[in-house]
């Protein structure tokens, strides 16, 4: 019975966290299919590679350290090193997608991978504590509120670094992601180390509460910055007569989801097109060479699309 309960206890909270993160990114929401792919990578691919990588690295280390120290070394060093790399591998693929274009996107995709990893890892832990309901419940609470969320925060940190560095050149393009990956490992190491000892467990929980607070704050500030991008980039379009001025403060706020400010038959399409236009413009400014050609074409496409969309409504 507890095995079935373990499935629900592992899947439902992490899936709920995933949807919440996806919904918070409200101004330029990522395709849920792509978010789901990252989630599934964390739940399956990253777990499998982590098990293989941890086994190989622990075996190598076992030749150089006493067996009594091997467990601590695996927990404190091997797990953070291997797991953050295996989780982050798929981000290196996702970042090549043109929908992955800033820090917010990195948080969403990285968070999705971490939650998927946490979900599977939680299940494996839960079924190991089926001897009594009380011990099982304690593990479920701790891992749901802290351990699995740690995976979300750590991989989201690496994702944020990738998003921030995507349009950089030279050393920053390499060093910023490496710093993000190192920070993810430090978060992972600190949590594993602190909760391994009764004397430091309280500090571990405090560390994660503060870390989660920082994560949420950065995420919300990043989302708010997207709101400013939409307004600033569409202001030029309003000055050029493409978009009505009274739409500017609607397109970059929750008001855009309310009916009545534009013809309802085009509202959702118009919002997507205007938002994409705003982000394509900022991406054009940040990019170089062949990418600029793509973004320039996209900008012209969406300008013409919006012009025809609003023109047809006005003519009607």
Low-confidence stretches: none
Provide mean pLDDT, rounded. Answer: 94
Count of discrete domains: 2
Helix-strand pattern, N to C? HHHHHHHHHH
Give me the secondary-structure category: mainly alpha
**Looking at the chains present, what oligomeric state does this protein adopt?**
single chain
Largest sheet: none
Supply the key terms:
mainly alpha; 316 residues; 10 helices; single chain; 2 domains
How would you explain this protein's 3D organization?
By secondary structure, the chain is mostly helical. It has two domains: 2-196, no CATH class; 226-315, no CATH class. The protein is built from ten helices and no strands. It has helices at residues 2-24, 32-62, 67-94, 103-126, 133-165, 171-195, 201-239, 248-251, 267-286, 290-315. α2 runs antiparallel to α3 and α2 (32-62) packs across α4 (103-126). The longest helix has 39 residues, at 201-239.
């Amino acid at each position: 019975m507890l095995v079935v309960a373990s499935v629900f206890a592992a899947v439902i909270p992490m899936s709920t966290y995933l949807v919440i993160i996806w919904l918070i990114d409200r101004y330029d929401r990522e395709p849920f299919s792509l978010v789901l792919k990252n989630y599934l990578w964390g739940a399956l691919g990253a777990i499998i590679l982590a098990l293989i990588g941890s086994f190989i690295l622990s075996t190598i280390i076992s030749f150089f350290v006493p067996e009594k120290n091997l467990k601590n070394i695996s927990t404190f060093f091997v797990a953070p090193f291997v797991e953050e790399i295996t989780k982050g591998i798929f981000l290196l693929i996702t970042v090549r997608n043109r929908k992955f274009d800033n820090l917010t996107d990195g948080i969403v995709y990285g968070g999705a991978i971490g939650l998927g990893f946490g979900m599977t890892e939680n299940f494996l832990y839960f079924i190991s504590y089926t001897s009594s309901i009380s011990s099982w419940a304690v593990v479920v609470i701790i891992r749901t509120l802290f351990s699995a969320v740690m995976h979300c925060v750590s991989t989201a940190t690496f994702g944020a670094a990738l998003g921030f560095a995507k349009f950089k050149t030279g050393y920053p393009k390499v060093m910023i992601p490496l710093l993000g990956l190192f920070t993810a490992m430090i978060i992972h190491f600190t949590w594993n180390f602190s909760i391994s000892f009764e004397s430091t467990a309280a500090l571990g929980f405090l560390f994660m509460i503060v870390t989660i607070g920082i994560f949420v704050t950065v995420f919300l500030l990043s989302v708010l910055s997207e709101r400013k991008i939409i307004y600033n980039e569409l202001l030029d379009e309003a000055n050029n007569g493409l978009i009505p001025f009274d739409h500017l403060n609607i397109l970059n706020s929750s008001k855009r989801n309310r009916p009545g400010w534009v013809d309802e038959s085009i509202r959702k399409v118009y919002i997507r097109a205007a938002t994409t236009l705003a982000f394509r413009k900022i991406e054009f400014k940040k990019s170089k060479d062949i990418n600029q050609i793509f973004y320039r074409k996209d900008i012209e496409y969406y300008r013409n699309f919006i012009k025809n969309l609003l023109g047809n409504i006005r003519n009607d």
